[in-house]
Amino acid sequence: MSEKLKVGIIGATGMVGQRFATLLDNHPWFEVTTLAASAHSAGKTYEQAVGGRWKMETPMPAAVKDMIVRDAEDVESVAADVDFVFSAVNMPKDEIRALEERYAKTETPVVSNNSAHRWTPDVPMVVPEINPEHYEVIKYQKARLGTTRGFIAVKPNCSIQAYTPALAAWREFEPREVVVSTYQAISGAGKTFADWPEMEGNIIPFISGEEEKSEREPLRVFGHVDESRGQIVPFDGPLRITSQCIRVPVLNGHTATVFINFGKKPSKDELIDRLVNYTSEASRLGLPHAPKQFIQYLTEDDRPQVRLDVDYEGGMGVSIGRLREDTLFDFKFVGLAHNTLRGAAGGALESAEMLKALGYISAK
């Protein structure tokens, strides 16, 4: 690529916005040219606007330190200087929906980390390794918005990343009843131990909205584009998921324990084979942030572990272990995924890479 696409980060000062800034530093396809946030941050340098709230383990990239933050509500001005934007704003959902549509209507594609548009029928919610064909719904969204290149695409919730890839790998065996408990890191709430010390040595058995997302979003990922209706129709087969979501004293990494029944009974060897040999369009296209091997299967009894496995494939891969037969269900297993990389900014970045590779995002 001779010229990089110009990228804006909307909501740049928050934790996910910071992660976008670090991941995009020296990206081979994209270059951050615009940072935007609330009116309170507008007019300050990025370093001044973030202040002491930098939450990443790596230093703030030099390329963005002195960049002047703009008001995210100044949509026309921000959109004029970018080819597309990442959205990581922290606002009420109805306000997010309205703001993202305003950007899209300026003919600026929006790749969103937010949940506000995940159930908008003509907005694709994609894990690039699982359901990239859902991007085909974009043409119907453009017709609704009255745009030629502007649209919104979103990624799913971070809590489903540790187990939905396994269900995707096993689709031929017809997953049916699934009972899942997720043990979710504090960075999923935008926190570190420095600003949430009460989480040390503690668990909280409730995360608002997470259980509904964990149960419903995989069904949308496994759905299909209904051409007659111009929208995504969630999977309506026998798969049913019930979940509990627990906040645990871990910085990064969501772990899931899963019990599963199948319509067609597989062997353990068949299940492992489908995991380790899972291939995807994202890998075939050679996207910069696509893991070379999406899923790894670990044979040790005490794996996956956050400390050992959360950074698998640069935090973009999924680790599965402890697969074994169960006395009440067919099988049970443990999954692990990095919630702010695979599950948040990294997943959105890989989505943008796929949208670029498929021709949905280009220079204005």
UniProtKB/TrEMBL annotation:
It is an enzyme of class 1 (oxidoreductase). Keywords: NADP, Oxidoreductase. The active site is at 158 (acyl-thioester intermediate), 254 (proton acceptor). Its EC number is 1.2.1.11. Residues 6-138 form the Semialdehyde dehydrogenase NAD-binding domain. It holds the Pfam family Semialdhyde_dhC. The lineage of its organism: Bacteria, Bacillati, Actinomycetota, Actinomycetes, Bifidobacteriales. GO terms for molecular function: aspartate-semialdehyde dehydrogenase activity; NAD binding; NADP binding; protein dimerization activity. Belongs to the aspartate-semialdehyde dehydrogenase family. It comes from Bifidobacterium pullorum subsp. gallinarum. This is Aspartate-semialdehyde dehydrogenase. GO terms for biological process: methionine biosynthetic process; threonine biosynthetic process.
